């Protein structure tokens, strides 16, 4: 059976938008910044292992930068959560910060001659990783199951284990499918922009999405979002 009272549709769609942004950002990171993730930290731990083993094309410094920035962002998100107790205001703050950092990353990517080396690479990695850390910390506080916005392992596990084939009743199946599809679409579109247009264009798209979402959340009442105190 489905949950008797799940999250509101506007909140689910907002988290779905952030999931699309994660796909775009990681497409830029992995394809444009040299085999590193700025949203998926599990991936960075694995990539550091590859680099330590001597696999070519992987950078301990790049992945470690992303991890450090993400952890700093998550700690910042925790501090923000201590000061802002109303969930809608907390989400607006996190998405607004992410929008600002993504705009900065897009400007850097769109104006430098080479993005994949030197200070532009590490600056964009750090800026995006920090933004994703803040976001993940705050989204965790929203408490919406299967909508983490950055990782899908447990979502896919739940989808299969709780399915009819697994002997379950398909709880949260719609949200789980939305998460997977949004991540796929974001990665597809982001990769297409990186390969066929420019990494800066992909980050520009991510910036537009986050700025638009921040505006929407600011204008939407806590009651409609299902985040009323």
Task: Please give a handful of descriptors for the protein shown.
229 residues, mainly alpha, Growth Hormone, Chain: A, 9 helices, globular
Question: In terms of topology, how is this protein built?
Answer:
Elements: H1 9-32, H2 41-52, H3 60-83, H4 87-111, H5 118-142, H6 153-161, H7 173-196, H8 199-219, H9 222-225
Helix pairs in contact: 1-5, 1-7, 1-8, 2-3, 3-5, 4-5, 4-8, 6-7, 7-8
Top-tier CATH class: Mainly Alpha
Architecture (CATH level 2) name: Up-down Bundle
Percent range of helical residues:
over 70%
How many whole angstroms does the radius of gyration measure?
Answer: 18 Å
Distance between the termini: 27 Å
In the CATH hierarchy, the third-tier topology is known as Growth Hormone, Chain: A
* Number of helices, counting only DSSP H or I runs of 4 residues or more: 9
| Major beta-sheet overview | none
- Count up the domains: 1
Residues in β-strands, percent: under 5%
Extended strand count: 0
Mean pLDDT: 94
Q: Report the structural category.
A: mainly alpha
């Amino acid at each position: 059976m489905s949950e008797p009272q799940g999250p509101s549709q506007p909140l689910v769609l907002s988290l779905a938008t952030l999931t699309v942004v994660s796909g775009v950002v990681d497409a830029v990171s992995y394809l444009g910044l040299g085999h590193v993730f700025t949203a998926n930290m599990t991936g960075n731990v694995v990539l550091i292992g590859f680099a330590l083993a001597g696999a070519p094309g992987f950078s301990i410094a790049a992945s470690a930068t992303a991890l450090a920035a993400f952890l700093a962002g998550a700690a910042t998100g925790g501090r923000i959560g201590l000061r802002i107790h109303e969930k809608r205001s907390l989400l607006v703050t996190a998405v607004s910060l992410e929008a600002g950092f993504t705009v900065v990353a897009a400007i850097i990517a769109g104006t430098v001659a080479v993005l994949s080396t030197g200070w532009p690479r590490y600056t964009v990695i750090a800026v995006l990783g920090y933004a994703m850390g803040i976001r993940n910390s705050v989204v965790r506080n929203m408490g919406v199951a299967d909508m983490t916005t950055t990782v899908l392992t447990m979502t896919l596990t739940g989808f299969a284990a709780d399915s009819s084939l697994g002997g379950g009743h398909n709880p949260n199946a719609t949200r789980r499918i939305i998460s997977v599809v949004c991540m796929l679409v974001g990665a597809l579109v982001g990769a297409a922009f990186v390969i066929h247009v420019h990494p800066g264009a992909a980050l520009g798209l991510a910036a537009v999405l986050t700025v638009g979402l921040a505006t929407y959340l600011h204008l939407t009442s806590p009651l409609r979002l299902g985040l009323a105190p």
